Amino acid sequence: MDTDLLRQLNDDIWHPFRLTYARLDAPAFLSLYSSTLIRAGGPAKQVLGFSEYADQTEKWFAELADRDSSVSISFRFVERIAENDVASERGIFQLVSTRADGGERTFYGRFHTYSRRTDGRWRICVDYDTDERAATLEEEFLAAIDVDDVNAFKE
Q1: Taking a C-beta distance cutoff of 8 angstroms, is the pair 113, 14 a contact?
Q2: How many domains does the chain have?
Q3: pLDDT digits (tens, 9 = 90+) for 101-155
Q4: From edge to edge, which strands make up the β-sheet containing 104-118?
Q5: Buried b or exposed e, range 108-129, using 16+ CB within 10 angstroms
Q6: Which domain holds residue 79?
Q7: pTM to 2 decimal places
Q8: CATH number of residue 122's parent domain
Q9: pLDDT tens digit sequence for 43-80
Q10: Is 155 among the domain residues?
Q11: Backbone angles phi, psi at 43, to 5 degrees
């Protein structure tokens, strides 16, 4: 495994993903995705294209901002495969939602993304997530590999 590719994925996708999510910056967040995106799963168990996903994301970020709520997301990986200009990454995310009154809720889910590097930049082309087997997700999240530990995937 070329760990330089994983670092590029971190720089182009995973670190900006966390930052734009926390800032509720829908345009910057959506720029992490390919215009040919296939988005599947999620809480509603839907399959969406880029336009539908963009509309859904913009509305959700706006609702959070209107309620003066915030959200943060963290990723840990169980598999990262990257070669040349394509990548497949699987892992577990942790989402922390904070209401204006300070109340917090933490959610976990599994994700699988496929990304492609075009014009020198990685973008997510396929994004799938699920909360199946939710009872064990916190434990699995803690056991999975941190986004910056790219050497763990070196062969």
Answers
A1: no
A2: 1
A3: 889 999 999 999 999 999 999 999 999 998 776 667 888 888 999 999 989 988 6
A4: 46-49, 33-41, 121-130, 104-118, 86-98, 70-83, 145-146
A5: bbbbbbbbbbeeeebbbbbbbb
A6: 3-148
A7: 0.90
A8: 3.10.450.50
A9: 778 899 999 999 999 999 999 999 999 999 999 999 99
A10: no
A11: -60, -35
